[in-house]
From TrEMBL:
This is FtsX-like permease family protein. One of its GO terms (cellular component) is plasma membrane. The keyword Cell membrane applies. The chain crosses the membrane at residues 21-41, 281-303, 336-355, 375-398, 419-443, 666-690, 718-738, 750-772. It is a multi-pass membrane protein. It comes from Chitinophaga tropicalis.
């Protein structure tokens, strides 16, 4: 019986090549798009979950409560990891981790720039990172130890075994002994590094970390099995109260746990509580994948229904000779299953071909997991669900036809059936309009971000690291650069112009309320900072060598002036830590962090001696290539053991919004696919309507109706459906895009032209799709359509 069903299904597919091709193409596109999105989603969900003890791993987070605000980050005191192990019996392991920094590693004649961190001795006990040589207990147990990746070992010593016990020099300054070689970190790691150094070395190098009042690095812990995280959280909340003795009573820090498995997906916090992150994109694309499958299934329904008149007599005859409705339903469901299976084969081929492009677009390394049983189960589930959804309505509709009415030639489609199909078309275009609006809004927001005035000029601004002789002899380096062609100005900045996380509440000023604690961002800079960054001075001046006391003076921004309560801050006293001085310059507010966060108060102090941070070089417009060549020559001369590297501030700025850019491209791509698939469905319904009204069109033509009037007649009902879809989709699109824009502090305003453009686009696409079928029906010779009468 099954064989007969499949044979009949195959014959029907071959007999109706055009409809079958459209059906298979629509289903294949829907399935391929869904598979790509689900592979992306699966990869996102895997990040940070690859460790054997993932369920027991946590990051220590801080809620800093001051000035009526709660700021959440993972910058904890350097003494915290060891203290937690001593005070908490629930903690099996604890390790600090510093921020990732680029350093120059050398061994013998080989030199390479690598990224690395300082980490606690328990690091390899906590994280399932395979060690090729060395042990987890000894890898980071002693000062002077360095654990390196397989890639780093092969770069310097050919293989992991040869690297063990060898010496690597960092930044041409300090020697470290290779104590372990670990496997290169997989793509789904939340931490990225090529080497790790001993934590005690870090505490010795940075003495400020040995004070409880200071925070900077992160802290990771592994709880013992069976531990209740809520109970640990309750104890952590007040853990720092007795230790931060010098902190103002109005400033409080509360510690809490964040599961390691949630770090990547739930990175946003608001008012001290988790507030989404990349999980929003994961949810979005799961919904989009489901919608694309649903749109493809709706197409199948519409196209199968369009062929119903031709299949009606077949059903009538089969019923007349005794076929049961159940057997007819199985027949049509088998046809749907066979067509979906063919579409699945096409979809897998399409995914395999498009994966390299998709990986380039998303920055991932996805592949078809052919050998994974779960993948085939997922594909089988998609196939069965798609076949079930797409084949159910045609099967139920055709099997319900009464043979007497069919064989008499009086088959009519009920108003309810027509309403259902039109509802499906409205639903398709609601989804398509939502994606059109989303695409436009994402594009506008990214354009806004790219072109927004940050308060400084990020064009032609080059950044190089202050290291080696360049950092120690910064003044000599600066003067040599200023004598070269293509260089406008040079300055130094301790932090990045795009990300300044340094904060302090150790600030005193005239009129400050007793006990008041306000968090200020801070950084140190060199002379010509305002000139090089092209910042706008509201009052006062930049730091200048002409004023010998500037080493104790400060620049502030407008937000700082408001918090200090100074109407005219120039000349007013300000004490940063234990260094009293005066304010010499007021800067117009400028962005020194992501546009996701508001501009915060910042205090800028002078340090023009060493340049262990970032050196900013403003080049002449149109002379960037020559300037870079000159900069490289000076760097190689002063720092022969350091590879020359640089970055542009504008390019680094765009990397901050890489996630949004990728999401924008994906939305655009799948919006186009959803519109195309929806148009296939509209084409099917137009074909069905034209087929139903063949004789009506013939009679109208006999009575003199023009082609234009018939096209208008056939198109009018479909345009109504699209207009209904626009009315339904517009408020939904407004709400969805408004929610996404809320993640930006600085954003575009939603305006009516966006929805007008989306609506007109949908109408235009629909008219073009319908017109083909309508014109074709209108051009049919009425003799052919009426010859049976």
């Amino acid at each position: 019986m099954l064989y007969n069903y499949l044979k009949i299904a195959y014959r029907n597919i071959i007999r109706n090549k055009t409809f079958s091709t459209i059906n298979i193409l629509g289903l294949a596109l829907g399935m391929a798009s869904s598979l790509l999105l689900l592979l992306w989603v699966q990869d996102e969900l895997r990040i940070g979950r690859q460790h054997a003890n993932t369920g027991l791993l946590y990051r220590i987070m801080e809620n800093e409560i001051a000035d009526g605000r709660i700021v959440t980050d993972e910058d904890t005191p350097g003494l915290l990891p060891e203290e937690l192990k001593r005070q908490f019996s629930e903690v099996a392991y604890a390790a600090g981790i510093s921020s990732n920094e680029n350093h120059v590693l050398s061994a013998g004649e080989k030199i390479s720039r690598q990224s690395g961190c300082y980490a606690g001795a328990d690091w390899f006990n906590m994280y399932s990172i395979p060690l090729l040589t060395g042990t987890s207990q000894s890898a980071l147990s002693e000062p002077g130890n360095i654990a390196i990746s397989r890639k780093t070992a092969e770069t310097f010593f050919k293989n992991a075994q040869a690297a063990l016990g060898q010496v690597i020099r960092i930044d041409n300054h300090t020697d470290y002994k290779v104590s372990a070689v670990f496997e290169d970190l997989p793509d789904n790691s939340t931490d990225k590094y090529d080497f790790l150094l001993n934590w005690k070395t870090f505490l010795k190098r940075e003495p400020w970390l040995n004070v409880w009042e200071n925070g900077g690095p992160g802290t990771r812990i592994q709880l013992r099995p069976g531990t209740d995280p809520d109970k640990v959280n309750a104890k952590l909340k007040t853990f720092l109260k007795g230790r931060n003795k010098d902190i103002s009573p109005s400033f409080n820090i509360e510690l809490f746990l964040q599961p390691e498995a949630e770090v990547y997906l739930y990175s946003n916090f608001k008012n001290g509580h988790r507030d989404g992150g990349r999980i929003e994109y994961v949810r979005l694309f799961i919904i989009v994948a489901a919608f694309l499958l649903l749109i493809a299934g709706i197409n199948f329904m519409n196209l199968a229904t369009a062929r119903s008149v031709k299949r009606a007599r077949e059903v009538g005859v089969r019923k007349a000779i005794g076929a049961e409705r159940r057997s007819l339903i199985w027949q049509f469901m088998n046809e749907a299953l066979l067509m979906t299976a063919l579409a699945a084969i096409v979809a897998i081929i399409a995914v395999w071909i498009s994966l390299p492009v998709f990986n380039q677009l998303t920055g991932k390394q996805l592949s078809l997991p052919i050998g994974n049983f779960t993948f085939w189960m997922l594909l089988a589930a998609i196939l069965l669900v798609t076949a079930g959804v797409s084949g159910s309505y045609p099967a139920l509709f055709l099997s319900s036809i009464r043979p007497v009415r069919v064989l008499k030639g009086t088959l009519h489609i009920s108003a309810g059936s027509q309403l259902f199909r039109r509802g499906l078309v409205v639903f398709q275009f609601v989804l398509s309009i939502l994606m059109i609006v989303g695409t436009i809004v994402v594009y506008q927001q990214l354009q806004y971000v790219q072109t927004k005035n940050l308060g400084y000029d990020r064009e032609n601004l080059v950044v190089i690291r202050g290291e080696g002789e360049i950092a120690q002899k910064y003044q000599v380096f600066k003067q040599q650069l200023l004598q070269l062609a293509g260089i406008q100005s040079v300055t130094y900045m301790q932090t990045s112009p795009l990300q300044n996380g340094n904060t302090t509440d150790g600030v005193q000023w005239s009129g400050k309320e007793p006990g008041l604690a306000i968090q200020f961002n801070n950084t140190s800079v060199g002379y010509d900072f305002v000139k090089t960054m092209k910042l706008q001075l509201v009052r006062g001046r930049d730091f200048s060598p002409e004023f010998g006391t500037d080493s104790a003076n400060y620049l502030i921004n407008e937000s700082t002036a408001k918090r200090l309560g100074y109407k005219d801050p120039i000349g007013q006293p300000l004490t940063f830590g234990k260094h009293p001085g005066i304010i010499v310059g007021l800067l117009k507010d400028f962005h020194f962090n992501s546009l996701h966060v508001p501009i915060r108060p910042i205090i800028i102090r002078l340090n023009d001696q060493g340049a262990y941070g970032n050196i900013l070089i403003r080049t002449q417009p149109g002379q960037v290539k020559q300037a870079l060549s000159n900069i490289e020559a000076v760097c190689r001369k002063m720092n022969p053991t350091f590879p020359f590297s640089y970055s542009f501030v504008d390019e680094e700025f765009m990397k901050v919004y890489k996630s949004e850019a990728v999401v924008g491209k994906l939305i655009t791509l799948f919006a186009c696919l959803s519109i195309f698939i929806a148009c296939l469905g509209l084409f099917g319904l137009a074909a069905f309507m034209a087929e139903q009204r063949t004789k009506e069109i013939g009679i109208r033509k006999v009575f003199g109706a023009s082609v234009a009037s018939i096209v208008t007649l056939l198109s009018r009902d479909f345009i109504k459906l699209v207009l209904i879809a626009i009315l339904i989709a517009s408020p939904l699109a407004w709400y969805a895009t408004a929610q996404w824009l809320e993640t930006f502090t600085y954003k575009i305003s939603l305006s009516w032209p966006v929805f007008v453009i989306a609506g007109l686009s949908a109408i235009t696409i629909a008219v073009l799709t319908i017109s083909f079928q309508s014109i074709r029906a209108a051009l049919v010779n009425p003799v052919n359509s009426l010859k049976g009468e």
